[in-house]
């Protein structure tokens, strides 16, 4: 499609995007629905392509097999008109380690529509998706290359990211690239000025990194069952690797883990506040990422004695998520309210982590429901 061509999408294709977004991530499906069309459709398409990249990496086939699939993925990004041949071959191949739905989207029967939509996106937006998806795929394809960062090392039969730089590099590959992709699509869609686009770009990586690190804390025990830890080995070795056997961790070490995440979420808040009020759809989408991240960390901090133990399970309740949806609508155009929410959330986290008996947090009345509605 040439630049300037109008994007058209059928009702069946819209239904396809909605169906598959809810299949692969209900939480991100809610995020994307906050955005105006056609940006909503571009972001959904981009996200599903990123999940295809994830599926290649998550498959338990050999390194050489994955390398060939990543090469074919590059062809799909560059020449989506050839999708039928590639997806037909993928559908006839084995994808061990994937769920049934993950395997289905890799084949022609359930995956072709995705690449048809991608092909129909105007070239300026398609080029953004193509460029950043290539970067993500390249990084994913090199995760087990001993010559390329990030590096994993083996500790107690667990693959662990090497040092803090490896931790950040990994988060860039899986989330920072997505942050840049979304930022460029958003800047184009809303016609943002170059200074604003540049400022957003400065914080895009940290924004994605903070959200990814929140998930890494939340999912630590589940990841360990799969034989991997994204919390880096340098930090693990400071406390004799006890989290790798779910034997807990000293509070001072837990505090360091949280401080690292919160520093990136500060940048995510700056990113959100940089968005002009005219970009209200994407401001709401950003809030729907940021607020649940803060609530997850509050819940984890309150349960600090369970962190990195067999009881390491931290997922916000449906009630808390509903409150985040309510707060998103209320705060979308309230910059002062967003800043207050961020400060209040960090104060509650720090009260839980640093004080034996936390004093009452002074929160605006209209924020009290948010911090009272959490549940395990």
Ordered list of secondary-structure elements with their pairings:
Layout: H1 11-24, H2 26-33, H3 39-58, H4 63-78, H5 83-91, H6 100-104, H7 108-120, H8 123-141, E1 152-155, E2 158-161, H9 164-190, H10 194-218, H11 220-225, E3 228-229, H12 233-238, H13 251-274, H14 280-302, H15 318-331, H16 335-354, H17 368-372
Parallel strand pairs: 2-3
Antiparallel strand pairs: 1-2
Helix pairs in contact: 1-2, 1-3, 2-14, 3-7, 3-8, 3-9, 4-8, 5-7, 8-9, 9-10, 10-13, 10-14, 13-14, 13-16, 14-15, 14-16
Approximate shape: globular
Our count of helices gives: 17
Return the string of H and E elements: HHHHHHHHEEHHHEHHHHHH
Mean pLDDT over all positions: 93
End-to-end distance: 48 Å
The major β-sheet equals:
3 strands, mixed
What structural category characterises the helix and strand content?
Answer: mainly alpha
**Residues in helix, %:** 55-70%
* Secondary-structure arrangement, i.e. CATH architecture of the largest domain: Orthogonal Bundle
Low-confidence stretches: 357-365, 372-376
Reported by name, the CATH topology of the largest domain is: Farnesyl Diphosphate Synthase
CATH superfamily of the largest domain: Farnesyl Diphosphate Synthase
The CATH class assignment of the largest domain is Mainly Alpha
List key phrases describing it.
Farnesyl Diphosphate Synthase; three-stranded mixed sheet; disordered C terminus; 376 residues; 2 domains; globular; mainly alpha; 17 helices
């Amino acid at each position: 499609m040439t630049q300037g061509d109008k994007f058209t999408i059928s009702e069946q294709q819209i239904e396809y995007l909605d169906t598959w977004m809810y299949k692969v991530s209900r939480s991100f499906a809610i995020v994307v629905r906050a955005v105006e069309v056609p940006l909503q459709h571009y972001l959904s398409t981009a996200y599903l392509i990123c999940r295809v990249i994830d599926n290649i990496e998550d498959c338990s086939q050999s390194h050489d097999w994955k390398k060939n699939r990543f090469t074919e993925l590059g062809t799909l990004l560059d020449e989506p008109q050839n999708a039928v041949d590639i997806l037909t071959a993928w559908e006839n191949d084995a994808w061990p380690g994937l769920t049934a739905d993950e395997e289905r989207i890799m084949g022609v029967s359930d995956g072709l529509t995705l690449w048809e939509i991608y092909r129909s996106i105007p070239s300026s937006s398609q080029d953004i998706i193509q460029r950043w998806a290539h970067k993500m795929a390249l990084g994913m394809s090199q995760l087990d290359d001993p010559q390329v960062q990030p590096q994993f090392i083996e500790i107690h039969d667990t693959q662990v990211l090497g040092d803090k730089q490896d931790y950040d590099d990994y988060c860039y590959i899986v989330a920072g690239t997505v942050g840049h992709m979304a930022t460029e699509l958003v800047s184009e869609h809303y016609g943002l000025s170059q200074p604003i686009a540049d400022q957003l770009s400065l914080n895009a990586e940290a924004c994605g990194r903070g959200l990814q690190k929140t998930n890494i804390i939340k999912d630590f025990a589940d990841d360990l069952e799969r034989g991997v830890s994204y919390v880096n080995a340098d930090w693990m070795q400071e406390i004799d690797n006890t989290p790798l056997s779910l034997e807990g961790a000293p509070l001072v070490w837990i505090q360091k883990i949280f401080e690292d995440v919160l520093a990136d979420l500060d940048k995510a808040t700056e990113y959100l506040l940089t968005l002009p009020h005219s970009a209200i759809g994407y401001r709401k989408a950003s809030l729907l990422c940021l607020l649940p991240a803060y609530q997850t960390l509050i819940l984890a901090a309150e349960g600090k004695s369970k962190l990195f133990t067999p009881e390491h399970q931290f997922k916000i309740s449906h009630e808390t998520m509903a409150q985040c949806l309510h707060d998103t609508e209320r705060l979308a155009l309230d910059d002062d309210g967003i800043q207050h929410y961020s400060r209040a959330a960090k104060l509650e986290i720090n009260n839980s982590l640093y004080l034996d008996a936390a004093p009452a947090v002074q929160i605006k009345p209209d924020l009290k429901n948010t911090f009272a509605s959490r549940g395990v």
